[in-house]
Design a protein that fits this description.
mainly alpha, 2 helices, about 70% helix, about 45 residues
Length: about 45
């Protein structure tokens, strides 16, 4: 008998929850860093 478990599924790609967490993290980092970057631009 061949067993199929979580490990086999994990190799194929990312789950929706993982992708949502990464997108949320990138959003938070953008909100924090963009205003500081724009403040330091020469006028």
């Amino acid at each position: 008998m061949k067993q199929t478990g979580c490990r086999e599924k994990a190799v194929k790609g990312f789950s929706l929850v993982e992708l949502m967490l990464v997108i949320a993290l990138l959003g938070v980092l953008s909100v924090i860093s963009v205003p500081g970057f724009l403040r330091n631009l020469p006028e």
